[in-house]
Amino acid sequence: MQELVNRAKELLADGTVARVLGWKAGDLPYNPEPAYFEKAEELVDFVYNGFCGANLSKYMIEASKLEGKTMVCLKPCDTYSFNQLIKEHRVDRDKAYIVGVGCKGKLDIEKIRKQGIKGIELIQGAELTDEADTLKIQTIYGDKTCAYADAMLERCHVCKGKEHMVYDELIGDSNETKDADRFDEVAKLETMSPEEKFAFFQKELSKCIRCNACRNVCPACSCRKCVFDSTKFDSSQKANVDSFEEKMFHIIRAFHVAGRCTDCGECSRVCPQGIPLHLFNRKFIKDIDELYGEYQAGADITSKAPLTNYTFEDAEPSIVGKRG
Amino acid sequence: MQRIGVFVCHCGSNIAATVDVSKVVEMAHMEPGVVHAEDYQYMCSEAGQAKIAAAIQEKKLTGMVVCSCSPRMHEATFRKAAERAGLNPYMVEIANIREHCSWIHKDMEEATKKAVILMRAAIAKVNLNAPLQPGESRVTKRALVIGGGIAGIQTAIDIADAGYEVDIVEKTPSIGGRMSQLDKTFPTLDCSACILTPKMVEASAHEKINIYTYSEVEKVSGFVGDFTVDIRKKARSVDMDKCTGCGVCQEKCPSKKAPSEFNRGLNTRSAIYTPFAQAIPNVPVIDREACIKFKTGKCGVCSKVCQAGAIDYEQKDEIVTEKYGAIVVATGFDTINLEKYDEYAYSQSKDVITSLELERVMNAAGPTHGHLERLSDGKAPKEIVFIQCVGSRCSDDRGKPYCSKICCMYTAKHAMLIRDKYPDVNVTVFYIDVRTPGKNFDEFYRRAVEQYGVNYIKGQVGKVIPQPDGKLLVQGSDLLDNKQILKEADMVVLATAIEPNPDVRRIATMLTASIDTNNFLTEAHAKLRPVESPTAGIFLSGVCQGPKDIPETVAQAGAAAVKAIGLLAKDKLLTNPCTAQSDILLCNGCSTCENVCPYGAITYEDKEVNDHGIRETRRIAVVNSALCQGCGACTVACPSGAMDLQGFSNRQIIAEVDAICR
Amino acid sequence: MSLENKEFKPKIVAFCCNWCSYAGADLAGSSRLTYPADVKIIRVPCSCRVNPMFILRAFEKGADGVIMCGCHPGDCHYSTGNFYARRRMTLLFSMLDYIGVENGRTRVEWVSAAEGVKFSETMNSFVEKIYSLGENVRLGDLRCKN
């Protein structure tokens, strides 16, 4: 982290960048939040640790409009989102000085809590430089420990890799954290009966309070105005009042980002109700990979997106019923 | 709120026998916005239209629904009737209660219920209709023809004869194209030059035709009726105005080692050259790669011998910018590269040649002055084998999946000509199928077999092996006799597949005209609009659209000309107002819509916007309504709903959905 | 469930492209080839105009089945529209299947202007399928139900 702060100071001092986009400590040991730093002195608040899951690429939409360059800290997975935003002309590559930061897997406080660890006062072992694979947690009930891997976000278990897709320089090393296949859960759901599937999604989606956190955090959901807020479709909605509205919202949201979603997992990370929203996006990704060839959004900035492309031999929609 | 009139047609008994029309009228009165409803026996009749006009004026209607036959039948009729009565024609919607209701249902109650629902959907839609005005755009009365082969020449002559200015842009130093390289033409065996040269002269002498040879299209912008094109006139190094075409420079030029493009590289030409004797214009160009003066700075012989003083070593490429209303693509074809077909020994033996090369060999102006001889040793061949479908109808990626169409016929021609002139030469043709659909084509082929004794063998050749004695051993199979064949030949001629001119990809991109996987330009409709590109104002002439022989090419060239003339004859174009529009405040500028537009109608502009007090410059999609055909692909690609289609807007369709599901 | 309910009259929305399928439906009409009145056709310029929103909206408002018809692939009036539509609908239907909505409630069929018989047969078989599935209870806005 110190290396990052030092570099940030240098870049601010020599005028390469006008501000730094990173994270600052929150009011609790596990909730750092995205923040801008415009002066070297402000960087005392800068943090970068295992809880800095937030994908900062979306902030660059606004930062691209500001005077001067912004140094932005992007983890390997965040760079896919940044590339996708370049492709969609939403960010200005020339306005970003991308520091590709190392990542050893990001942490999910809910996973720690689920292990019965409550009343957390301090967490050690979450720094990038920490070699230990165990978190030491001080709580009001005494000291606890938790294996790092057991506290990781779901998305880190299916990590896309340690490579940054776009950067100006790299600081820090990354760990290999992948130990599962990202489509396993989707595949499991696919084999269920319609009744079981419906029950599963009904249970999950009925938790939705339409707080729009998923939409606000999603780098692909970057529309200036969402269709669900506009009058263009007579679809403007607020809280859900029936069993279908939230399904419609989440299906359409996933559809709108299909072929553009990099699977960064932010939607699931921020959902206050713990809905596994990534299961929608990954379903589309899995279908696209299987039907139209493997495609990773954000891996480059030139390839044709699956939904703006076609071949004469594409599968017919009836394949859905035939796959069983 | 709209003031809507509903007009329910009986269509004699076609509708009224199954649908209770008075019930439909009664229900119409209960719909929001409806201020008038009536039924009549034949709404499309004079009297029916008069009723509509009266209601529009008396009830001050702002919209109307006609419950009648299919809109494909009478939508235009009712729109015109509305317009005459002072109502915007796009405020008319049709509920199809005949084809989609009365004709397919027997139960009156059921059919009436459905008719009411269809009417409600139309009313719900018309409530959201807005008056639309067709746009206007001007037409530049000048056409550009890209390519100066027979297709381009014919198109240009036809357009010019109709009184419009035409420019031909030809990449090579002369017009004439592939046809100028041919010796004789099937099925009449008349000499290609004898029928082509007069056309070339006609084009060059035509007061309305301007020819840019040794030139290429560099940039295209604009849209139907109003294209702006940059043409690069490559430096000829010869002043076109001064040159008299005497030819002395070519005779005296000391550099004579450049392969002759016109003779397919079978012999050489001088560095300063015209491709062939009848070239138009008869002005040579200096091939700067081959010219000693350009390579070493010394020489300058041509300049010394040119009495007209036309040689200009300093000449530079020149860019000409012109405006056109219509563009015709006539870029033609070439034969495929044979490197993937090494089993035929094309690269190993000079006596394995392509059919196009054989044309040059047979031609009096060709490398052998028309004598049929082996290119390796100049000896007269006694056995010639023709191999069909080399690279055509190919299932793997070595060749082309399509039939090149012309090969069966020209091979029959070659075989016949050879047998006629050299009766002692044996000719064998290996074929997969002989395809001769065309006027007098099968008769022609049968003459080759029956009168001229050409030996046709159904089967493929696996290998051609050059022998130490200079002969060629052909290994083939005879599928009808089910046996292997080994044949010694003196010459092997490959019916090489044709492919679109490689430049077409670059040109299509500039024109935003679509091309298929084989690089052939795509038609607007494969059956009904075969000479138009989906991009408005772009027309297709000749082989650039698909394999064709000469008469077909000339016919298509004429058809393309007619389409271009039809466009140029208009002073202004009325554009379909049912086009896509982008909402400036909702557009993300993400380019997704652009990627699905088949017409290149969407571009992006940086626009100053005031979004509820936030002033900023944004990248915004802009639809060119002259190009947009109103398919709506962009509207669904757009995640924010910024892109919407006039006449079929999101809200209109949702209103219909709601009305039906109500 | 509605299977026993003899009164079940499904609501079926058919989106038809103007150039092929709508004309195919016209031909079915002029050939007097019947299909159930439960089918109501909405005319769109091209299958690529059909937004997944429209389909979900139909279900939300109580449709029991939604079918989309367009020109055969390769025959699109706008060259490529139905290719995009095909991908969109494949993914949408797959998603609906994934969340437990019976796949039989959605269908895409390519019907040319000459295929009146196919149009009628398609509608008959689709309506039959919807009858066998019964009322749509998984989708739909409860407020729209009686």
> Structural class of the helices, strands and pairings of chain C?
alpha/beta
User: Fraction of residues of chain C in helices?
Assistant: 25-40%
Low-confidence stretches of chain A: none
For the biggest sheet of chain A, the summary is: 6 strands, mixed
**Largest interface: pair, residues per side:** B-C, 49 and 46 residues
Number of helices, where a helix is a run of at least 4 consecutive DSSP H or I residues of chain A: 12
Named CATH architecture of chain C: 3-Layer(aba) Sandwich
Helix content of chain A: 25-40%
Mean pLDDT of chain C: 89
Order of helices and strands of chain A: HEEEHEHEHEEEHEHHHHHHH
Notes on the structure:
The complex is a heterotrimer of chains A (324), B (662) and C (146). Chain A has 324 residues and is α/β, with parallel strands linked by helices. Chain A folds into two domains: 2-171, no CATH class; 184-322, no CATH class. In chain A, 31% of the residues lie in helices and 14% in strands. The relative contact order of chain A is 0.12. By secondary structure, chain B is α/β, with parallel strands linked by helices. Chain B folds into five domains: 4-126, 3-Layer(aba) Sandwich (Rossmann fold), CATH 3.40.50; 142-234 and 317-332 and 501-568, FAD/NAD(P)-binding domain (3-Layer(bba) Sandwich); 248-305, no CATH class; 334-499, 3-Layer(bba) Sandwich (FAD/NAD(P)-binding domain), CATH 3.50.50.60; 576-645, Alpha-Beta Plaits (2-Layer Sandwich), CATH 3.30.70.3270. In chain B, helix 6 runs parallel beside helix 15 (550-568). Chain B is elongated. Chain C has a four-stranded parallel β-sheet, sandwiched between helices. Chain C has helices at 21-30, 52-60, 81-98, 116-133; strands at residues 12-17, 39-44, 65-70, 106-110. Chain C is α/β, with parallel strands linked by helices. Chains B and C meet through helix 3, helix 4, helix 5, helix 17 and helix 18 of B and helix 1, strand 2, helix 2 and helix 3 of C.
